[in-house]
From TrEMBL:
Name of the protein: Carbohydrate ABC transporter permease
Keyword terms: Cell membrane, Membrane, Transmembrane, Transmembrane helix, Transport
Name of one Pfam family that matches: BPD_transp_1
Record-linked Gene3D superfamilies: MetI-like
Record organism: Pseudonocardia yunnanensis
Domain ABC transmembrane type-1: 125-317
């Protein structure tokens, strides 16, 4: 009886093949300690380390130093304003004899009422608000439209116009007083003098190169994809400016608004030249004239009113001016 043949493949009797040589091992260099933690990396050590801060003596010493520095900053920053408020409700004798005393003869609230009614501070406050509001609006319109043209539209002559606007920053403002006054006195194409009108203050305020450059630099950092998407959807230049650019520009609009309002409120020389009529002069121009014929306590009360109004307005509208949600109105969904 025959045996079945095996199906196992035959093993060659020759020498076994040599395996391929292993690739040389690379030496892995691990990053330094703390490099992979990103934002969790330890900050560099300052004058006082974290271990020293935990000791009670160092902690108490640092608290005393911080308190002293904070008090000094408050005294230096708020001291003059607080003294002005105190002097405005004190008598003239108390202010002259003991200026640093705290109400030796009591509080005199009548100074504020007298300054508001008899010196007609209310009229000049209204004039200052009108001038500041008009100057703010003109500066905002010129700054946003000029920045939009230079940054987003980018005409062929844009670089030349940009350098021309930049060069005006190196011209002293005093040099421009005479030609600007002659232009306001006899404006071209109008034939009517703008002296003793608020337009004489509003229109020159728009020629502010700093605001134009400030808005242009902000517009340069905005994402271009949003403007391209708006153009693809059929939006024209005016629609892009009104519906896309302005909602994204709330932070820079707030900064320009604060600068424009404060500069117009405290401006003295130009309103003095173009507004000779006392009935339309702002507070900054009228108060030095009233100082010759007004009691000291009433004058200080008027100065307090003129200083507190812009401070209160800024505190009320600071969230609107300095809101950082620049992209909230442009991105949907």
């Amino acid at each position: 009886m025959s045996t079945p043949t095996s199906t196992r493949p035959a093993v060659p009797s020759g020498p076994r093949p040599v395996a391929a040589e292993a690739a040389p091992r690379r030496r892995v260099r691990w990053p330094a300690r703390g490099a992979l933690r990103g934002s969790d990396e330890q900050p560099p050590r300052g004058i006082v380390s974290e271990a020293e801060r935990r000791t009670p003596s160092v902690r108490v010493a640092l608290g005393v130093v911080h308190t002293v520095v904070l008090v000094l900053l408050l005294v230096i920053g708020l001291g003059p304003i607080l003294w002005l408020v105190k002097a405005s409700i004190s008598t003239t004798q108390d202010t002259l004899r003991s200026p640093m005393a705290l109400f030796p003869s009591g509080v005199d609230w009548a100074n504020l009422a007298t300054a508001w009614s008899r010196v007609h501070i209310d009229l000049h406050v209204a004039n200052s608000l009108i001038i500041a509001s008009g100057s703010w609006f003109v500066q905002l319109v010129v700054a946003t439209t000029a920045g939009y043209a230079l940054s987003i539209l980018r005409p062929r002559y844009g670089p030349v116009l940009y350098w021309l606007v930049l060069s005006t920053l190196f011209v002293p403002a005093v040099v421009l007083l005479v030609p600007l006054y002659l232009t306001v006195l006899e404006p071209p194409l109008l034939g009517v003098s703008l002296i003793n009108t608020f337009w004489a203050v509003w229109l020159p305020a728009g020629a502010n190169a700093f605001n134009v450059l400030l808005t242009k630099r902000f517009f340069d950092n905005l994402p271009r994809e949003i403007f391209d998407a708006a153009r693809i959807d059929g939006a024209g230049p005016y629609r892009v400016f009104w519906s896309v650019l302005l909602p994204m520009s709330r932070p820079i609009l707030g900064v320009v608004s604060v600068f424009a309002f404060i500069s117009a409120w405290k401006d003295f020389l130009w309103p003095l030249l173009v507004l000779p009529d006392p009935d339309i002069q702002p507070l900054s121009v009228r108060l030095p004239t009233l100082a010759r014929s007004t009691e000291l306590d009433v004058l200080l009360a008027a100065l307090t009113i003129s200083a507190l109004i812009p401070m209160v307005l800024f505190l009320v509208f600071q969230r609107t001016f300095l809101r950082s949600a620049g992209l909230s109105g442009a991105l949907k969904g």
